[in-house]
Design a protein that fits this description.
Blueprint: H1 2-26, H2 35-53, H3 58-71, H4 77-80, H5 87-105, H6 107-116, H7 123-137, H8 144-161, H9 169-183, H10 194-207, H11 213-239, H12 259-276, H13 278-281, H14 285-297, H15 306-311, H16 316-334, H17 336-347, H18 355-382, H19 386-393, H20 397-401, H21 404-409, H22 418-427, H23 431-459
Length: 464
């Protein structure tokens, strides 16, 4: 009975959010706001309520958002459906196909067996190894989505090898450790995540500030990166407790090679090489992975039969990611960002000289903005507000800009991280179990990383 009541709570919250969205939609506009902006806000509130509570499947909420935004909000099709021509959306599509290829050829089993020779032979040891693998790849692969689609089939194969079958909490824990290790430390490595690159582009184009790889790494990775890789295995071992039965979990088994597996290794090697050298050729990682996916699906050359592509690959995460990106574009086009930030800083005013209070207010306001815009869209809006914040706090503009990366780690909802939705789909994990981990990591970011990051920025001279 308790479980049923617990499951009803998100539905109740979703209905309250829908009611709030409807009320905002019909609300008479106050001075300074247009009726179109309130209509857009009403649609956005409905979508966020459904995504945040997972009351409906994420892809279904995306379809609802598309319909409402086109018919009720003042947004054109080019804006609403912008996710379908964005690099992030096609990164997910290509990633789904590559993930299917890794599973079909048995490549995941081969690599999992090799990793099991290195990792400690315990559940906690595997969590640490998965987290560290994700963190190391942050320095070589430029996309969270790319890292997730490469790693998860491998670690799910590893779960099979050590007896963590579907339904066991340890299987989910191992998949989430690899994903979290890829996502959270990446906020401290400049080219490793979409928000970082959006932030960098906005800082250069809007404010003319050039930030180097080393400067960004020194400023953000010691706290965001190191605290997260320490916290992730500890949190997951508590939220998803399990154990590995037996002292030698079948690492002597080897998978047979095949022409399909050899071709996949060649395609993946070329893909990784092109990802790592994108600074030289300038081709987006999304188009590289799309090309790899096409090669995997080609007759004779590829290794995925058409029956797999059509019948067994679920494109639900693709619709979801495109919906989230479209919502961010709608929010930006409607001009809601500046009004939201004004309201936030009325609640938490800034004062010259109150460095820690200002740091908390700016970081929390940035995190709150990402609830509406999601992480990929947040930097474009918040970066435009930086001069006003600098004037109110007395900080250099670079200091204000450097408050943003920590706010991305504070995001508490899965829809804010498109790679998390993809990871949960590949791992077959429920939204409720993912929500527990994201909430725990948001608490770590808010109560551990935030004060440490302030002290670190003060130590290296960002507050004078």
């Amino acid at each position: 009975m308790m479980d049923k009541r617990t499951h009803r709570i998100p539905v109740v919250i979703a209905w309250l959010g829908i009611a709030a969205g409807i009320a905002v939609f019909f609300l008479p506009p106050p001075d300074g706001l247009s009726p179109g902006m309130l209509r857009t806000a009403g649609v956005v509130i409905v979508a966020i309520s459904l995504w945040a509570t997972a009351a409906l499947p994420e892809y279904f909420t995306a379809l609802i958002f598309f319909l409402l935004a086109i018919t009720l909000a003042d947004a054109g099709p080019a804006t609403v459906f912008s996710g379908f021509h964005s690099a992030a959306g096609w990164m997910v599509f290509g990633g789904l196909v590559l993930g299917a290829a890794v599973q079909e050829t048995g490549f995941g089993k081969v690599l999992a067996g090799q990793l099991l020779r290195i990792f400690p032979k315990s559940y906690t040891g595997l969590l640490v190894g998965a987290t560290m693998t994700g963190m190391v790849l942050c320095f070589t692969l430029p996309s969270n989505t790319g890292r997730v689609v490469i790693m998860l089939p491998i670690f799910l194969a590893m779960a099979d090898r050590v007896g963590l079958q579907p339904g066991r909490p340890g299987r989910t824990g191992l998949a989430f450790a690899a994903t979290a290790g890829s996502i959270y430390p990446s906020f401290g490595v400049l080219p490793a995540a979409v928000p970082n690159l959006g932030w960098l582009g906005a800082a250069e184009s809007i404010h003319g500030i050039e930030i180097t790889y080393g400067q960004y790494l020194l400023t953000n990775f010691p706290v965001i990166g190191l605290v997260s890789v320490t916290a992730i295995p500890l949190i997951i071992s508590k939220l998803f407790p399990d154990r590995i039965d037996g002292a030698d979990p079948g690492i002597e088994e080897t998978a047979e090679s095949s022409p399909e597996l050899v071709r996949l290794v060649l395609i993946l090697t070329a893909t990784l090489g092109l990802w790592m050298t994108d600074f030289a050729h300038g081709v987006s990682p999304a188009w590289i992975v799309l090309g790899a996916a096409i090669l995997c699906m080609l007759p004779r050359v590829g290794m995925i039969p058409s029956s797999v592509v059509v019948g067994r690959v679920s494109y639900a995460p693709w619709f979801f990611v495109c919906g989230v990106i479209g919502m961010g574009a709608v929010v930006s086009e409607a001009g809601m960002g500046s009004h939201l930030s004004d309201a936030m800083f009325v609640v938490a005013p800034l004062a010259d000289g109150a460095d820690f209070a200002n740091f908390v207010a700016v970081t929390v306001a940035s995190a709150a903005m990402a609830v509406v815009t999601t992480l990929p869209g947040q930097p474009a809006i918040m970066t435009t507000l930086m001069p006003d914040i600098a004037a109110a706090t007395g900080w250099p503009l670079l200091t204000v800009l450097m408050t943003q990366p920590l706010s991305w780690a504070m995001a508490p909802f899965a829809y804010q991280f498109p790679p998390w939705i993809l990871a949960a789909h590949i791992a077959g994990a429920s939204a409720g179990r993912l929500a527990l981990l994201l909430l725990a990591m948001a608490m770590v970011a808010s109560f551990v990383m935030l004060p440490l990051q302030f002290l670190w920025l003060r130590l290296i001279g960002f507050f004078g």
